[in-house]
Design goal:
alpha/beta, 202 residues, Rossmann fold, 8 strands, Ybab, Chain: A
């Protein structure tokens, strides 16, 4: 059990110390992953940014994801079954939303160039690993040197999913029984946009 995200972040940072002398960028998954990522970035003395990603939805069933997008990249997993015209419109819609969130949280700051850098993606935990998997696949398009996933807690199934697509997955706790990330924190309060902005400016 972690006291809170800050405590979890400090423990995770200790595990990631080996990357201290690499050219690294730490990407926090908003919103809950940012306080954890802040502690890692502080320990390593490297830039902290957020990784913004959203699912691309099916034209008929909006609950079904056909892929995912970041500000500048996207992946489609529908094997050509969705019309290209729809994909183009959906990518634009999602990237416009992401741009609004980016401007709100990071103002007009241009994202770090990830090429040939060790990219450490941090969240406060993983349940299925699907969101993190999409993020990793999109980051790979930027040609990083390595992609490292760091989380305080995750089930073995999520870790296994990510190990196939990344260079290393570090999870402090891998419980046999897992019903949600929040159960492993004494304090698991919602993180506001204002708090995210403060962490990014610290």
């Amino acid at each position: 059990m972690f006291k809170d995200r800050t405590a979890a972040g400090k423990l995770l940072a200790a595990k990631l110390k080996k990357y201290k002398h690499y050219h690294c960028v730490v990407l926090g998954v908003p919103r809950g992953g940012v306080p954890v990522a802040y502690e890692v970035a502080k320990e390593l003395g490297v830039p902290l940014e957020i990784i913004l990603t959203r699912k691309l939805t099916h034209p008929v069933n909006k609950e079904f994801a056909i892929g995912a997008a970041t500000l500048h990249n996207y992946i489609i997993e529908n094997n050509g079954q969705i019309p290209e015209e729809y994909v183009t419109k959906e990518v634009k819609r999602v990237q416009d939303r992401l741009q609004q969130t980016h401007l709100k949280l990071e103002d007009h700051k241009e994202p770090e160039n990830l090429e040939n850098k060790v990219v450490i993606v941090v969240d406060d935990g993983m349940a299925t690993g699907s969101t993190m998997l999409a993020a990793a696949q999109l980051i790979r398009k930027s040609n990083p040197k390595k992609i490292i996933i760091g989380v305080p807690v995750a089930p073995a199934s999520a870790i296994e999913k990510l190990e196939k697509e990344t260079d290393e997955v570090i999870a402090l706790k891998v419980p046999d029984s897992f019903s949600g990330v929040g159960e492993f924190y004494e304090s698991f309060e919602q993180v506001s946009d204002e708090k995210v902005i403060r962490y990014l400016k610290m």
